[in-house]
Amino acid sequence: MNRRHYLCLAAIGAVGIALPGLPVWAQGADSARFRTLKTPAPTDAETGKIEVIEFFWFGCPHCYSLEPLINAWAKKLPADVVFRRQHVPFREPKHQQLFFTLQAIGQDSEKVLTTVFRAIHEQRKRMLDPKEMTEVLAEVGVDPKAFNDAFNSFGVRTRQQRANKLADAYDLDGVPALGVNGRYLTAPSMAGSNEAALRVVDELVARERKGA
C-alpha cells in the first residue's frame, strides 16, 4: 500500500477545515454528504446483498465515539444488508494486526472490540505488544495461545493486505469512514455528525436496493 497514514477526520471535516491535499466539504448538499467512487471497489457480499463497511483505527478517538452508535445501528439492519469492519494501516500497524488476528480466531465480537478500544482510550494502554494484548484480551475470554499462534500467521498478513487494497480502492483519506456496496463513501466529517453519517448510509443502501 502506498499511503501509510490516515487522518481522524471527524475533528476537522465536520467544521469544514481543509488540510493540504484534502477537499473542504460544504454542509447540506448531497455531493458533500457522500461521494461516488469513480471506479467501483470490490465487495464480498453475495448476490442480492448490500455491503456496508466501517473503516476504522483502534487508536482513533472519533472511531471510538462512533462505536456505540454503529453497534446499535448494525443490530437493526435488514436481512439484505451485510455489515463488516476493516481496520486501516494507520500509524500503528500492530493495531491492524491485532484486529485481523481477532477476526482470524473468531474473537472480533462487539464485546472484544470494545475492550480493545477501552484499553487504548480509557486505560491508556498502547496495545502494541502481543504480551499486553493477550493480558487485556484474556479478561474477555480470548485464549492467549490461539491469539499468539495466529498473530504472525500468513492468514493474518493476507487479511491485512486485502484490507489495504480495499482502502486504496475506496481512495480512503481518513477514518472513521463508511463504504456502501463498493460504490459510495461517507463519513461523519462529510455528513456533519456520527448520526448523520449513519442516516446517509441508510439512504445509500435504499438507493442501491432500488437500483438492484
Any idea of the CATH topology?
Answer: Glutaredoxin
Query: Strand portion, in percent?
Result: 5-15%
| Sheet/helix structural class | alpha/beta
**Total beta strands:** 7
User: What is the CA-based Rg, rounded?
Assistant: 17 Å
Order of helices and strands: EHEEHEHHHHHEEEHH
Describe the structure.
With about 210 residues, the chain is an alpha/beta fold. It has a single domain (about 5-15, about 25-210), classed as Glutaredoxin, CATH 3.40.30. About 45% of the residues lie in helices and about 15% in strands. The chain is built from nine helices and seven strands. The protein has helices at about 30-35, 60-75, 95-105, 110-120, 130-140, 145-150, 155-170, 190, 195-210; strands at about 5-10, 35, 50-55, 80-85, 175, 175-180, 185. The strands form two sheets. A five-stranded mixed β-sheet has the order 2-7-6-3-4, sandwiched between helices. A two-stranded parallel sheet has the order 1-5. The two termini are about 30 Å apart. The relative contact order is 0.22. The model is unreliable at about 1-5 and about 10-30 (pLDDT under 50).
Structural topology:
Blueprint: E1 7-8, H1 30-33, E2 34-36, E3 50-56, H2 61-74, E4 81-87, H3 93-104, H4 110-121, H5 130-138, H6 144-151, H7 154-169, E5 174-175, E6 177-180, E7 184-186, H8 188-191, H9 194-211
Parallel strand pairs: 1-5, 3-4
Antiparallel strand pairs: 2-7, 3-6, 6-7
Helix pairs in contact: 2-4, 3-7, 5-6
Features of this protein?
single chain; globular; two-stranded parallel sheet; five-stranded mixed β-sheet; Glutaredoxin; 212 residues; alpha/beta
